[in-house]
Design brief:
2 copies of one chain form a homodimer.
Chain A (H helix, E strand, L loop, with lengths): L5 H8 L3 H9 L6 H14 L4 H9 L4 E5 L10 H14 L5 E5 L4 H14 L4 E4 L8 H7 L4 E4 L11 E4 L1 H14 L5 E5 L5 H16 L8 E3 L4 H11 L5 E4 L2 H14 L4 E5 L3 H6 L2 E4 L2 H16 L7 E4 L2 E3 L6
Parallel strand pairs in A: 1-2, 1-3, 3-4, 4-5, 5-11, 6-7, 6-8, 8-9, 9-10
Antiparallel strand pairs in A: 10-12
Organism (chains A, B): Actinoplanes friuliensis DSM 7358
Pfam family, one (chains A, B): Peripla_BP_3
GO molecular function, one term (chains A, B): transcription cis-regulatory region binding
Chain lengths: ~325, ~325
């Protein structure tokens, strides 16, 4: 027997699927006559869908949307892929399914929200890559669309629920580890100022040096992310340092290459503990991505129950020791 | 900014409005070259299909489901992540959204199909990791649920539409490249017999050696995937070979490590051109994953239009040359 779906019901009642969905979810917006016709079709076809039933009961679709990032250099991009794996794993037992979308910038993403909210009964969004001047959260908040973010609202008040990893604590631990191994001239390779995550990673390094009574001035470089920019910046810094903390594994790989070329002994620590770090023996700061994803799903429950207070969770990273800074 | 319509897209692509509509709804009836031109215009103009409008017209949800794999060693697992990025990118302009699910084996995946088909109005599934004795495809076929697979039906008849990459051609090209560089004792590191993909990768190596009149007997090892098993197997083989073709970048990394430890000069070629290959300078066979994902979306249109014949597409991999086998 063919499966009875909303489409079958819509066909029989001679209405659109949206109308059937409206009858199930917001019957007050449907004319009474149409409503009756749809309900007759539902009864005649024996349309009984657990999801639809739940949707009628709870007004929820159990569908959440998350952006999938364009594949960048394949090293750092893997971080959000791991978050996505964790999110899908955590969503299923909680009864949620994850829908993907792509967008190249905030405006494009907001346009996609409109499209998704028109076309699908989404329960909520999980936003990643929050940043200064992020217009996505206020857009969603104004329209009362439920969401949580992986990443804090940089420079904006804490008005929504979020999960983040303490980036500064990660580079501070990395720098302390190098200090503990006897290094005293510890440099930092990071990104241009202005990115919340990047600035926090630089701050952690500077804080650790300052606590140890060591200067940090002149010992950092800000470049675009990638192996080549990392190698260039490291070549410039290496004469002055014997250890480097890096804002990413890509930059750290560049630093390792420069140190090898210059035959300059230099401890190197990356950030994100990617597969590449594992493959080349790079010490790296590891974000608890599976944990972060699971906590996002936890917080969603509170967000969907609008009476709950917003909650913010800052998770601690850990340092994975390998040959480049044992 | 003026609103972008089908007419605007048609003007820019130099085709009729009907052709644009065909590309959006029944792309299989449009010549590939025209299809590409229209898609370029769609992307350039930022044309967004109104999902709600189309759903009313076609009775389809435009929601497709794909499994997201558990994150394995983070090296080889990234291949399916890249496929997923490609799928989401290709799905959006065609008006589809991608929904994720997880499963640990075929039976678990089939249980998930039942859940998804009951709970959501899915249009189709895209299956990955096809294998011998795959019970998923027959389950879906019996229930007339539309699907395409990335991966051919190993050992089963071609009764559904699929896209695959010619694995044997990849290792054959890798082996020929090594032969062309003067290597004559070329070994192979692969997986235990029985996996369609693994056997095909071994076959390509053996075929190239046989065509060159060289023996392959005793020059291959079958081990579990991973850096450590690759290093162990390579240690065993290295005395007899001066080059190694590997079924994965993980195995190739292990081979590189063993060669370094034994101080044995050995060219190494991996498979999948992962970020790790890029980072360590490993020559590797590259699968056209973005292309494969786009073709899956193309084939879906034919599958959803049940009158269309099933189609099978075998794509060619390419060899990315780096330091380990220049």
């Amino acid at each position: 027997m063919p499966k009875v779906t909303i489409a079958t019901v819509a066909d029989r009642a001679g209405v659109s699927r949206q109308t059937v969905s409206n009858v199930l979810n917001t019957p007050e917006v449907v004319r009474e006559e149409t409503r009756e016709r749809v309900r007759e079709a539902i009864t005649a076809l024996g349309y009984r869908v657990s999801q639809a039933a739940r949707q009628m009961r709870t007004g929820r679709s159990r569908l959440i949307a998350v952006r999938i990032e364009p594949a960048r250099d394949g090293i750092n991009g893997s971080v959000l892929d791991r978050f996505l794996h964790g999110l899908t794993d955590a969503a299923a037992p909680a009864g949620y399914r994850v829908m993907l979308y792509t967008a190249t910038d905030d405006d494009g993403e907001i346009a996609t929200y409109e499209d998704l909210l028109t076309a699908y009964d989404l329960d909520a969004f999980v936003l990643t890559s929050t940043h200064h001047g992020d217009v996505r959260t206020s857009w969603l908040a104004e329209r009362q669309v439920p969401f949580v973010t992986f990443g804090r609202p940089w420079g904006a008040p804490d008005t929504h629920s979020w999960v983040d990893v303490d980036n500064a604590a990660g580079t501070e631990a990395a720098t302390r580890h190098l200090l503990g191994s006897g290094h005293r001239r510890i440099g930092f390779l990071g990104w241009p100022a202005g990115s919340g995550v990047g600035d926090a990673r630089r701050d952690g390094w500077a804080t650790a040096l300052s606590s140890a009574g060591l200067p940090s001035a002149g010992l950092d470089r800000a470049v675009a992310d990638g192996i080549d920019p990392g190698a260039d910046a490291a070549r410039d810094l290496l004469p002055s340092v014997d250890a480097l903390v890096c804002a990413s594994d890509s930059l750290a790989l560049g630093a390792l290459r420069a140190a090898r070329e210059l035959d300059h002994r230099c401890a190197v620590i990356g950030f994100d503990d990617t597969a590449v770090a594992q493959a080349v023996g790079l010490t790296s700061v590891s974000q608890p991505l599976t944990e972060a994803a699971a906590r996002c799903i936890d917080l969603l429950a509170g967000v969907l129950d609008r009476s709950a207070e917003t909650r913010q969770l800052l998770l601690q990273p850990s340092l994975v020791l390998r040959q480049t800074a044992p």
